Amino acid sequence: GGGEEGMRNDMTVEIQSTLVNGNNDISNGITNNNHNSSSSNGNYPQPISPTPTVLSMSSSKATAGRGTGALNRQSCILRIPIKLHVPSQNIPVTFVVRAQLTTTDLVFTPSRLDLGPCVTTELTGSKLQIHNPSRLPQTFGFLHPPPGVSLAPGGGYGHVLPGETVEVTVSLRPPIEGPQTFVLTCHTLAGRVFEIPGSAVGVRPVVQCSHNRIVLPVTCAGDTRSYGIILRNTSEGEQAYEAKVPPNSGLVICPHVAVIPPKGSLRVLVEYSPPPEAIEAVRKKIEAAAEKEE
């Protein structure tokens, strides 16, 4: 059963008549209410033939409250005794319906996204974890994301197994400058809707880069690959810049210090030559893969 209102489970029970001649008039001991019911309060099985009747239970938080004596709080297993009365039979027929209760919640961490300053010309991302505390797998989807918001992987659609935690990257490219808020709406196939609020500050950069990602081709030891990018100054004044590269990365940026004139641009050359450390790491990786295959 589900953990919220509106989750309804049906079960068909066959009642077998053992009379060779005549019919059995059977009534059940199920009370029709907001939580459980049967398709009929009375039935007439034909001789030597089964008669199906449907038992329905709408599980909710109130279900656990009403069935305190029948609910195991540790395992969340609910056992409901059912009694069938037959006028021509002194001893009623009894059986037990067993239901496993679980929640349909999803837990989001963090509960509120704060992306901070976000450049209007680039994507700024933040991780969002989705945990499923239910005993059932759940399928989710972020429908109609706000302008400038994108989700990966799967475009914000996916599924999470019981007890599993998956991670989604929420990226924002602010459509405007200044403080702004948004709300992500997550729907599940169980009919649940979750809202995750978010905030960011759109910042328009004074110096803009023609590329925010550079992909260089495969470079052999001793070779050098280069790629040119353009820096543009959108302000009315001069803008100084300095490029810093990680140590032992094999990268060289020329010029690494310069002044960009007002409303002007500057071409910057990015060069890459594999350092000895990187070549040695690749060699060890290839040797390890070869040994694993043997």
From TrEMBL:
Report the source organism: Polytomella parva
InterPro entries, A to Z:
Ig-CFAP74_4th, Ig-like_fold, MSP_dom
User: Boundaries of each MSP domain copy?
Assistant: 200-294
Pfam families tied to this protein: Ig-CFAP74_4th
Spell out the residue ranges making up region: Disordered.
21-68
Compositional bias (Polar residues) spans? 51-62
Please give the name of this protein. Answer: MSP domain-containing protein
* Comp. bias regions, Low complexity: 21-43
